[in-house]
Amino acid sequence: MARTVVVTGSTSGIGLAIAAAFAGKGDNLVINGFGKPEEIKAIVARLESISKAGVIHHPADMTRPAEIADLIETAAKTFGTVDVLVNNAGIQHVEKIEDFPIDKWDQIIAINLSSAFLTMRSTIPLMKAKKHGRIINIASAHALVASPFKSAYVAAKHGILGLTKTAALELAESGVTVNAICPGYVLTPLVEKQIPDTARARGMTEEQVKTEVILKAQPTHEFVKAEEIGALALYLASDDARQVTGTHISIDGGWTAA
Ligand code: NAD
């Protein structure tokens, strides 16, 4: 039977790849995120053609609690429930702490951390009622280790691991698992956008940032593919993963082994 899967921030990059992976299983999808109307329409049409099930886009801004509540309410109204929640929306800003804009700090904490609390707050009662559910938080290698100039991002990602563990304990007897995926670098717009800022902050060329900063962190010296994260999310949502809860799975080319 088709599950209903909500993926925040799924108009681009990793979120879109995760949505496509679930579409490949014939699931209903609620996608979310920004983009031009014609681009979003094309994404919905592509996912529908893959899944042959229902696909809707909800425009909730992950900094706005009322819109986040409406996202989950709309998913439940449209498809009956939420079986899988993937908290993926995220942004980055690269700057040393003393120059880090306060509004950027607040925005990153809101999108990368608080939005997951808010989606979970609305979704958990639905999952508890069904005695089944899967919550997957897209964290980062930066949930486990830090890098300079990414204070808000690293703080939010470390925070989401704590939230993951807490929710898993609260839901341990409810048939609902809660886990995090910690990717290393994936070449998405989020990473491409930070290359010029990192170059400026470190006094390097953009090419040097790619080879000496980004891929230097990953012992395999290869980017993780967004589709590989989609495959991992499918596993965490599967019945085989029913005893996997309150933990994280790294997919980072060995980054955090060092
Ligand atoms: P991306 O920039 O390609 O996509 C981000 C998505 O979030 C887009 O759909 C965007 O519209 C949406 N979004 C941004 N602000 C939003 C808001 N206020 N409300 C709703 N949606 C919003 O980024 P990505 O690289 O695919 O990142 C996705 C997640 O993966 C993030 O949580 C990121 O921290 C995490 N991650 C990325 C990498 C990487 O190397 N790309 C590594 C580890 C973790």
Q: How does this model look, in words?
A:
This protein is α/β, with parallel strands linked by helices. It folds into 2 domains: 4-186 and 224-252, Rossmann fold; 187-223, no CATH class. It is built from 8 helices and 7 strands. It has helices at residues 13-23, 37-51, 65-79, 102-130, 151-170, 189-202, 206-214, 226-237, and strands at residues 4-7, 28-32, 55-58, 84-87, 133-138, 176-183, 248-251. The protein has a 7-stranded parallel sheet, with helices on both faces. α2 links the parallel β2 and β3 (55-58). The longest helix has 29 residues, at 102-130. The structure holds nicotinamide-adenine-dinucleotide.
- What value does the Rg take, in angstroms? 18 Å
Strand order of the largest sheet: 3-2-1-4-5-6-7
| Ligand roster | nicotinamide-adenine-dinucleotide
- Structural class assignment: alpha/beta
Number of helices: 8
Named at the architecture level, the CATH assignment of the largest domain is 3-Layer(aba) Sandwich
Q: Compute the separation of the termini in Å.
A: 42 Å
Q: Total domains, how many?
A: 2
Main sheet properties: 7 strands, parallel
Helix proportion of residues, in percent? 40-55%
- Average of per-residue pLDDT values: 97
Q: Which shape, going by the Cα principal axes?
A: globular
CATH class of the largest domain: Alpha Beta
Approximately what portion of the residues adopt beta-strand conformation?
A: 5-15%
Q: Regions with pLDDT < 50 over 5+ consecutive residues?
A: none
